Amino acid sequence: MKNSIILFCLTALANLFFGQNFKQSASYIFGPQNKKITLMTNSNNKKLILFKTNMAINTDGTPLSYHPYDLPANTKALNFMENGVAIYRLSDSRCISIPRKPLSDYPSKYRNNAKFDPSKISDKEKKEYISLSRKVFEEWRDAGYPESGVTGYKIIWKNVIVSKDGKPCVFKDNKQFEGFFGSMTHEQNGLKNDTSECQYANQLDPFKIPSIVLNSGIKYEASMGDLIVAYNPNTKKLVYGIIGDSGPGSNLGEGSIVLNAKLKNVELPKNRDGVKALAISDNIYIAIIPKSKEYKLVRPYTEESIVQRAEEWFATQGYNDNDAIIGLLTDNFK
Fold first, then answer.
1. How far apart are CA 324 and CA 189, in angstroms?
2. How many C-beta neighbours within 10 Å does residue 288 have?
3. Which of 43, 48, 216, 257 has its CA 20 to 30 Å from the CA of residue 104?
4. Are 288 and 226 in contact (CB under 8 A)?
5. Where in the chain is the domain with CATH 2.40.40.20?
6. Can you tell me the distance from the alpha carbon of 97 to that of 86, in angstroms, rounded to the nearest whole number?
7. Averaged pLDDT score across all residues of the chain
8. Selected residue with higher pLDDT from 1 and 67
């Protein structure tokens, strides 16, 4: 017993000594938003990826995300249909659902610049392309979603669950979600025999699981399922979560419904307007723990298990309470 107590004390002292030693080992500027992304390393060779960003909303994982008869998310859906599919015009390879100017529109000196972002187009152009993409989708929908798509266009499902025959899964039996598309997340609950309609149970429910989207602009070793912590300096709220989805784009920050609600210190929304109001324009501190997915992994994911795992990981590095973790985040941006 005495030896066990001594070992525990020595371990705690070692964690405290080594854990407070995170230092910057690399950094770069995320071009689209001119935001610094920093890689921190301690003497245990443990790593953290730190950055500050605003937080958009990711609704994927709930069937309420996309509805085939509410493409602009005005009456039923929580999300625009163009976030569920990608529609390309074959004549110029332009994505019209999420419009971007093709790189071929720019001189080579811009195309060869790694920091160059071609996504800037006028609001008028954007509205015209999105309107066209919705007309194309409606034609495809009314034809029964043929594999050939629509003449002159290529359509690719992105965040909608699709069966082996290429058809989208539409809820029929569940009255709460009847008529909605099944919506998927990149990281899943690992259910081998998921019998729920449209594999709903295997997705990360954004109303229940705090998570962020991994932006393709992050160069370091972050991956699906890694633990994260987010801090809102305005509300003083610290929230643990995981990386639950992936996506390209010009915005580093995109959180699940429950993550943003906790950061804003508000109740979960009960309608579409409430979900949209969860976007956070102020900078949120984010720390990703690379290669932490397997750390005491528990699936299906729950908020409680995620919190316990993250707290234990930080404790092993000498950060035994929220104040210490907040200090780790904020001190590196002074």
1. 31
2. 26
3. 216
4. yes
5. 2-59+206-331
6. 6
7. 89
8. 67
